[in-house]
Amino acid sequence: MNTSQVKKVVIAGGGTAGWMAAAALSKLLGKNLDITLVESDEISTIGVGEATIPPLLTFHKLLGIKEQDFMLATQATFKLGIEFENWRNGQDKYIHSFGAVGRDCWACGFQHFWRKGHDLGISGDYGQYCLELEAAKANKFAHLKQPVVRYAYHINATLYAKFLRQFSEKLGVKRIEGKIEKIENNDHSGMIESLELASGQQIQGDLFIDCTGFRGLLIEQNLHAGYEDWSHWLPCDSAVAVQTKATSDPIPYTRSIAHKAGWQWRIPLQSRVGNGLVYCSRYYSEQQATQSLLENIDGDTLTDPLHIKFRTGQRRKHWSKNCVALGLSAGFIEPLESTSIHLIQRGILRLIQLFPTNGINAADSEEFNRQTNLETQSIRDFIILHYHVNERQDSRFWRYCRDMSIPDTLAHRIELFKEGGRFFHEGDELFGEFSWTQVMLGQGIMPRSYHPIVDLMSANELKAFLDNIRTPIKQALDAMPLHHQYIQRYCKTD
Ligand code: FAD
Predict the structure, then answer these.
(1) Boundary residue ending a domain (259, 281, 309)
(2) FRET label pair with 43: which of 87, 227, 426, 428, CA 20 to 30 Å apart?
């Protein structure tokens, strides 16, 4: 235990993680803290990370950020979910939307009612009972009061960091440009005392937040927190990214298209598209991946292909001594379900909840690490599900994913769903029953049976129940404008 008060916070790194941390700490705890952010113009940010998930709205609400200002500043579009193409057998499509699907009861989820209706030939596609999913398919969007539409954004990551920088500097965050070359630790406690820049400037602090990206300058290179490697389950280790001019109006969902040794993303912003291919270097060379990506994009390229290497996994300790890792320095699962920015947000809010005002102590950091670990592992399992449950016969990569051993926690969830369509949400985990069900059904797992409570309804009653869910969805959809028309009106500059 170090009983000296934590007053001076130093954030190392100015990518999405660094500026999100600066913005939140300055807004929510700022008056009592002295916050400095160090970033180097010589070392660029990762430059990708443009698809988000709905909890980002909560983050912005906490910070008092107005949605229209944020969308204008980041060229954002709305996102209602992700369309997965060719993931199951190479010729399929399904959407994992952010919305609620159907209506459930205390004993079981909506999929049980849908499953029986499917046997009787009276159910539509599972997704037809979800407004967000139907709106995505129809390229529509609106903020509705009833039913509420659950959504996130596609953003320009570089502009987002700039936007948050302005926000933070107005709240008193000091920015120092310079390359960190040395880190000084206390001989006795091992805690970090200061960062030394190439210019010789020393930056002292009580608490350090490592946002230096994959290099993990403080948490790994200095404190050796260790890394839990998940590449057995998540074997993709490379990406190539390129931006293109938009050739059509932006759609309100991310596209994720499976390729022979990975998958391609398409993220539509207001006037350009972010594209990339995530792949496994055991099965695709850099040249094959680049060619495969460039053959599958629309519109003129705006940037040269950017190549990125990574290792899926997480830091063994996200908080070690007086250093907390956020963003890529804390680990990287995979961009498939756009969870990295969310994990940054969770890390920041958790740090605020456990803020060590009266000194660094082991109980706080252990709790931080315990909660982060649980949350990250359940996201990891959800991502593995997409890869593992496939019927693709066309490549060694997909065969590997199907045959690999998976975590027991995931194997249990798959079995439970296969047998009786059951799913149980645990604690604070991010993805709930609607998400898991959409992906399990989308990947081809049809539950063998359904809950007996469904049989309390006659076939006619079940049909009326199912039809009654679809009616308000159709009505809401008819009243919604096209996504791009809505954005044009909503994000007007004057
Ligand atoms: P970086 O952006 O790498 O920033 C590191 C910062 O540290 C920079 O400012 C740099 O100057 C500074 N720095 C480093 N070393 C020094 C030094 N010695 N001295 C001073 N400063 C230093 N996330 C999502 O949520 N959605 C997505 O769709 C998504 N897609 C992704 C696709 C790919 C292929 C990858 C690899 C990641 C994706 N992510 C996504 C993750 C997302 O990009 C990151 O979580 C996010 O950008 C945060 O990055 P960061 O700030 O941790 O690191």
Answers:
(1) 309
(2) 227
